[in-house]
Design goal:
The chain has about 280 residues and is an alpha+beta fold. It has helices at about 55-75, 95-110, 115-125, 130-140, 175-185, 190-205, 210-225, 230-240, 265-270, and strands at about 5-15, 25-40, 45-50, 80-85, 140-145, 150, 165, 245, 260, 275-280. Bound molecules: (R)-mevalonate.
Length: about 280
């Protein structure tokens, strides 16, 4: 019996949601929550145990599908015990589904499995741009543009000092569903996508993050992926002098996903938001 352990971090997209799907650039950074896997192989049928933030039944099915795809890639069956200890908020724009793919692939296929892991990511998360995969696989901040090699980017050390994450609930749609919907609206949302692309260019050129985040949020509103509740929370944060944006795909219905808020005292944000706040630590 051999014990294998792998880890993949969560991520936040500073700029670029949806725009990256259409070829505009985006910037993302890994953050200090992670999926940690411990696997002990044996001839017994595979058991999967969840610890930490546990998935729903649909999430458990997703994990089993990733394992099956690893078995296809490896042309063998994996037995033994797979323990998944997760601290990435699930389905809220922080990269939990891609971190799961990467950590399971590294565990079962070995650390040198980038191409196989990408194939699996494309199967279970159809329509993805590759940004989540790039930042989580490399575990460093990236400047990403589809069809070109992701570039490492050095962000100022204090860029996210005082930033907090607000959990505004689980979106009613999955990221692949929202991306598929956005692809049907490319002409209609063209200007908003270009505006998001220009936010990335300005951040790469050391622009002021709070100013950029305010404009980015306006573009996400035009995309239709900010729920009314998330929108009014962000408006209140802006009125108090701060800036905020939804992370990841956002939502059309249900909860609004995770919101990144910065640019004013976290205590002020805590007073505005009735939700739990999490500190945001880049790696
Ligand atoms: C999801 O984290 C970000 C999106 O831009 C989709 C993608 O890049 O694959 C909405």
């Amino acid at each position: 019996m051999t014990l294998i352990s792998s880890v993949a971090s969560g991520k936040i997209i500073l700029t670029g949601e949806y725009a990256v799907v259409f070829g505009y650039p985006g910037i993302a950074t890994p953050v200090s929550c992670a999926t940690i896997i411990s696997y002990t192989n044996s001839k017994e049928p595979l058991t999967i145990t969840f610890r930490g933030i546990k998935p729903t039944e649909r999430g458990e099915e997703y994990v089993r599908r990733v394992v099956e795809l690893c078995e296809k890639e490896a042309r063998k069956t994996f037995g033994g015990s797979l323990i998944i200890d997760n601290s990435i908020p699930l389905g809220k724009g922080m990269g939990s589904s891609t971190a799961l793919v990467i950590s399971v692939c590294r565990t079962l296929l070995g650390t040198d499995c980038e191409e196989a892991a990408k194939r699996i990511e494309d199967t279970v998360n159809p329509g993805n741009s590759g940004l989540d995969f790039a930042v989580i696989w490399r575990n460093e901040p990236v400047f990403f543009k589809k069809s070109t090699d992701p570039k490492s980017i050095t962000l100022p050390n204090d860029l996210l000092t005082g930033a907090v994450l607000i959990d505004s609930g689980t979106p009613g749609e999955t990221t692949p569903e929202l991306v598929a919907w956005m692809k049907t609206r490319e002409a209609e949302v063209h200007d908003a996508l270009a505006q998001i692309g220009s936010c990335t260019e300005r951040l790469a050129a050391d622009g002021d993050l709070a100013t950029i985040v305010r404009e980015h949020h306006q573009a996400q509103l035009k995309l239709g992926v900010v729920t009314p509740r998330a929108g009014s929370l962000i408006a209140n944060i802006q009125a108090a002098g701060g800036a905020a944006k939804v992370l990841g795909a956002g939502a059309r219905t249900g909860g609004g996903g995770m919101i990144l808020a910065l640019g004013c005292d976290p205590k002020v944000i805590a007073r505005i938001s009735a939700e739990a706040l999490f500190p945001c630590f880049p790696l």
